[in-house]
Structure formats: C-alpha cells, structure tokens
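Write out the bound-state structure for beta-D-glucopyranose.
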Amino acid sequence: MKVFFFILSLTSLGLADEEINSRYFPEGFKFGVANAAPQIEGGWIEDGKTESIWDHFAHTHPEMIIDGSTPDIASDSYHKYKEDVALVKAMGLDHYRLSIAWSRILPTGYTDKVNQAGVQYYKNLFAELKAANVEPMVTLYHWDLPQVLEDQLGGWLNETVADLFAEYARLCFELFKDDVKMWITINESKQVCQVGYGMGAYAPGVVSNGIGEYICTKNVILAHAKAYHIYDEEFRATNKGTITIVIDTTWFEPGSDSEEDQEAAERMLQFTFGLYANPIFMGNWPQVVIDRIAERSELEGFSSSRLPAFTDEEIVYIKGTYDYLALNHYSTLMVNATADAPIGDPSYDNDISVLTWRQPEWPSGSADWFAVVPWGMRRLLVWLKKTYGDVEIIITENGLSDNTGIMEDDHRVSYYQGYLSACLDAIYEDEVNLSAYTAWSIIDDWEWTLGYTSFLGMYYVNFTDPERTRIPRKSASWFTNMVATRCLVDTCTE
Ligand code: BGC
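---
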C-alpha cells in the first residue's frame, strides 16, 4: 500500500543537477494523460450504476480511507466529462486513458441487464474525444468490481469471475467497436490481488497473505487472457486496434555490487513484475517465484504450493496475450539481501525475503514509497528490454503525488522533466522501443485509501466546491508546451 507522510519541499528536489536530455522526442512518439472511472467519475449510483467494491469499501470502512472520504462524487467527471476532454484537447495530447466502470454498464455484474444510460455516458465521452481528435485508451478494469460479484462469488478468488470479466469485455468490444481502438484489459494485477486479497488494505479488504493473493493473481491473468482471445478472434480484424494488460513496478536497485544484493534485487523484480508479466510474455510464473513459494509452502506444512500452478494448456493459452508492454512506474527503492524470513505464517513478503529502503538523499514525493529517481525509470526500461526482448513499450502511468496540492508545482515540473529525460535516454542511448508516454494525471482525483489528500493532477480540483472547478497548476502549462515543442529544454537538437 502507498501511504503518504511528508510534505515535499520545492527546493529539495535538486533535479536541476540532473542532466536533461536535449533531443527531440522521435517523430510518432505519442503523449497522453490517464485516469480511471472510480477516481474521477462520481455518480456512484446515478442512472442505474450499482456499487463497486471501492464504493462499498469506502462506505463500510471509512477507517481504511485516510480522510474517511468516498468516491461518491469525486471529480464529478460523470457530469463534467466535456470539460475534461476540452482540457485534454487544449494540452495537445494524442490519447486519453480512461476506464469503464463495469457496474455502470452491467449493474447486476452479469450480462443479463445492460444499462443503456451507462452505455450512453461512454458513447458521449467517446464522441467528445473523437470531435477533439483524441484517441481513447480504454481500461476495462481499474479495480472496481461490481460489489454483487464480491458478495455472491467471492470476487477474484473465484475463477468464475474471470469468465464474467470476459463476457463483460466482449460486450464492451461490441458496444464500442466504432469508438475505441486502444484496449487495456486490467490495471495493475498486483494492486488488485496483493493489496486487495492479500494485505486487505484495498477493496475488497480480504486478508489472505500469501494465499488469496496468488489465487487472485491466477484468476486475473486468466481473465485478461480470455478477454485478449475474444478480442483477437472476434473483433481484431474489424476493430483493427490493440489490446494488452497494464503492469506496474517500482525499480529495485541493488544495495551493493555483491552477488547476494544483485540477486535480491532481481528476485524482487521477479516477484513484483515477473509474477504478473511472465505468464503473459514468456509462459508460466518466473522460476524463482515457483521455487521459493513451493519450498516455503512445504516447510509451512501445505500439501501443495500456495502458488496455484498453470496447466500446460493454460500456459499456452496465456502466453503471447499482449500487443505491447504497458508499464505504470512511479518510483525506486534500494534492495539488500537478508536472511530468509523464519517459517511461520505464510506471506508474500516472507516469500521474497529482501530488505528495501530509500536513499536518504533522494527527494521525497511526500510519501514513504515515493522517491523521485528518474534514472530508475531508465534502468527499468533497460531491464524490461533485457528480460522480455525488444518489445514495444508504452508508459501508461507516471507522475508525482504530493499532499499539498500546491499550484506552483515546480516539483512536478521537475519530476516530469527528469522522467521524460530518462525516457529519451532509454530511446536514444539504449534503443528501448518506447513509443508513448502517459502522465498520471490531468486532474486531481480520489486517490483510493488516500482519499482527497494526495494530488497528482496538472489541474487542481477543489473537492469542497460543488462545481469541482478545474484550475491549471504550473505543470499544466509546462506539459502543454512540452507536447507542442516535443522538447524538454529551451532548445533541442535532432
Ligand atoms: C494506479 C492509479 C493511482 C496511481 C497513483 C497507480 O497505481 O493505477 O489508480 O491513482 O497509481 O497513486
């Protein structure tokens, strides 16, 4: 879970010292911004929508949300979507990443009742984007399972939910086949499963450390693969678009040159990225993950590994279900080897057994998990290329959170400048096949358990104002100018 503690000092970033790449972004490189239905739409039961697990979690467990808030209204994009699209257009962006709320389209969770008002909302939104010449990049699942599927079926712990997701996906492919060409199945399986069904800190709040989270992960990956195959077989030829899954990771830097620390950092990457990516990009879980969980499960007295195995058919079915690698990345941590955790209660952290920490001199993005380390982005991109081959990569989220909401957000400008510079380094120096960058985010939103206390928007939203007026921060004009010039400094070279 991401917990925010510190206020970022504007002068603390020191990014001026970093060398900013002065080359232009290559021709054809695309820029966009991202957000998600449960974080901006509001209208939580409007026009036939039903409760999602996040609505329910916030309503029934206010103590789990730092300010006890709910996403009932959020940024009110359900009513203000035209304004949002106008901002995206004014920024000159190529794409707008948004998500569809499952329970707005299918209030029962199943395909028996399609909510026409919900369908119309997204139709209107897509029409607005089309008129603005902005490509929608549409996530089908950004953490907001219909609550009814949690209550009746146990949510992502039940494989049936993977089939229900596939049916919901098919319906969306059909409903929006003329509107959407960039499809994303699921956002960040790790947060869905590890935090939602392992730690229990995210909705639906199931605590099942080292057990439920792995069952969930298998089901989420199967759900993704089913949706991919449906798209591939029934829609790709006519829709002529792309489909993939979004995977997130922090970069983990070895704490020293020692073999143990190098191994520990690699193990951490395999547990935080490989666990969710390898079945899709390479076939099956990473070997180190298989081995460690099997070994510890046995010592703990389980008769089989807590990590559910894929059958041979499943391995083949899942492998290759991507059109490109979609990456969410925000920050970096150091990693050192440590003795294996003693055998006791199962847990994901004990399965990994490493020590993570932050260099004290790294500027803080106001949270314990959040350090501003642009070179971490470059190393991660290079690691992805080394690990998964010369695959096309799109950054689907990257941005800076603070807890001040300050309008003169020079720290956010520096963050974008540094991280975009790292992207240019990766493209030009390391020949990483990076084709697009999506910032999180354009407007302030409801930040899950951080409620309305964490700000990532280039536009400020006053959540106590019924109008939810969007007001540009300094970063909005910087980003707009960067998109127009395709350059991070005053003068760029080819
Ligand atoms: C999620 C977003 C979230 C962002 C910033 C990502 O993990 O996909 O929904 O708002 O991080 O915390």
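---
DSSP finds 16 helices and 15 strands in the chain.
Residues 2, 36, 39, 187-188, 191, 248, 328, 397, 401, 440, 447, 456 surround beta-D-glucopyranose (CB under 6 Å).
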